[in-house]
Amino acid sequence: MGDGTGRGRWWRRRRGRAGDAGGPRRAGGEGGAGGAEEVLGELTRLAAEAGDPQAMTFHGMALAAGGDPAGAERWLRAAAGAGEADAAAGLGLLLLARDRPEEAEPHLRTAADAGRTDVFGVLGLLYLQRGDTGGARTWLNAAAAAGDGRSARLLGLLPDPRGQAAGPAGPDGPDGPDGPDDLEELEELLRRSAGRGDPGALFCLGLLLARRGDLAEAEDCFALAGESGDPEALAHRAYAHARRHGEESAEVHYRRAAEAGHPAARHAVGALLHARGETAEAERHYRLAAAGGHHDSLVNLGVLLRRRGDLDGAEDCYRRAVALGDADAMNNLGNLLREDRGDLAGAEEWYRRAAEAGNADAQASYGAVHAGRGEWGRAEEWFRRSAENGCAAGMINLAQALARRGLGHEAERWLRAAQKAGPAGPGRTPPRPGRPPSGPGPSDDLDRIADWLGGPAARGDEDARAALDMLRRAAGDGAQDTGTPPDRA
């Protein structure tokens, strides 16, 4: 993007006067300073829209500070793509705050390679949290050499497997996880520091213990680290407790972390309330989590609003989550467009995007679109992808497509798998099949499948009923509306 407009050039001149460290100072004092700040903010926005990478960076950071993480991410991505190291650093830190460390790392590395020494320590902590003490040592050593006292103290806890001093500062160092002996030595050193009550050491020890499955002791470490009110420690205590005793048992811990401002914990509380039907309070928690950058909450909020009948609100939530690349939101948007708006072409486009992104529900729905047009080969291909990804709707639809071709034995295998398919996870709605396409098949195989389905169908199983209805109508080649799996909440 170019910046050849007068607005872009003026903004850079104004920025040079306003900032003494590469950034604008906040206006202070009296006499209309707030108005001047608003004008500067507006001019920065205009320069960003005109394509000035530095303006994009500052506008993105302003949006982040103002509570618009989605808008901030969009502008920082654009500026980072234009080569702005400050934007890469800001984007990496924003993604970390939004609980997306894998996405954050390459941007932080870009910033580090460009000389942003302040992200060296952040990279060190990232590596330490994933158990890669070699990578952690490299970046913490670089941060310590740049004057970061906290990194220097943490570096002192890390063992050196060569028995030598830490290597040279900079990103050139071991990237793979160290061996078990190294981790054992790290644990010993962390325990020593944790025994003195150091919250950071307690937190890191908890991460190390949770990584190897010692959840009871990990929870104790997170509990002690969380006594200071640290949101991350409180949230990790909830995670460890939930893995041991279930999500509902962890609610009190999620609430403590949520009250401390942790977005993922706010989302977890919202999901628990949503499952109990306490939708007003669930909505409040979802909105708080979404404002903190948790896009799963946008998806769940969309489900809640759609069920309430607020289609515009639901569509807005889905589209905001789609802009962040959420495949569940793409699928749910397709459902809304098809079932509530009657926009079949728009629905198909979103099913396609979600299916290609690996969403199993969307793969079942996209297959159903092809089946509805009589494109059975393409339909079976997508049903199979969905089934192999664990979606009961895809399994049922695949079984019916196979039965249509006379492959009753394989069809029966998928029907049995569909009966065993469990829910998608905490706070998620298990997928239901729609009404899949009908078609002819050898009567013996179809009768065998129907006999097997009769038991669970009589006990009220909706999947079995849908499949049994299809088999009873299995005559002719006319494609029927398969329906779609419900929105994922």
Question: Which key features would you list for this structure?
Answer:
489 residues, mainly alpha, Serine Threonine Protein Phosphatase 5, Tetratricopeptide repeat, 26 helices, 68% helix, globular, disordered N terminus
Describe what is shown at a glance.
With 489 residues, the protein is mainly α.
Would you write up a description of this structure?
Keywords: TPR repeat. The chain is mainly alpha-helical. It has a domain at 53-115: Tetratricopeptide repeat domain (Serine Threonine Protein Phosphatase 5, Tetratricopeptide repeat), CATH 1.25.40. 68% of the residues lie in helices and 0% in strands. The protein is built from 26 helices and no strands. Helix 13 runs antiparallel to helix 14 (251-259) and helix 22 (376-388) packs antiparallel against helix 23. The two termini are 38 Å apart.
List the helices and strands and how they pair.
Layout: H1 6-18, H2 33-49, H3 53-65, H4 69-81, H5 85-97, H6 101-113, H7 120-129, H8 133-145, H9 149-155, H10 180-194, H11 199-211, H12 215-225, H13 231-245, H14 251-259, H15 263-275, H16 279-291, H17 295-308, H18 311-322, H19 327-341, H20 344-356, H21 360-372, H22 376-388, H23 392-404, H24 408-420, H25 443-458, H26 462-472
Helix pairs in contact: 1-2, 2-3, 3-4, 3-5, 4-5, 5-6, 6-7, 7-8, 8-9, 10-11, 11-12, 12-13, 13-14, 14-15, 15-16, 15-17, 16-17, 17-18, 17-19, 18-19, 19-20, 20-21, 21-22, 22-23, 23-24, 23-26, 24-25, 25-26
Region (Disordered): 1-37, 157-183, 418-463
InterPro entries: Sel1-like, Sel1_AlgK, TPR-4, TPR-like_helical_dom_sf, TPR_rpt
Organism: Streptomyces desertarenae
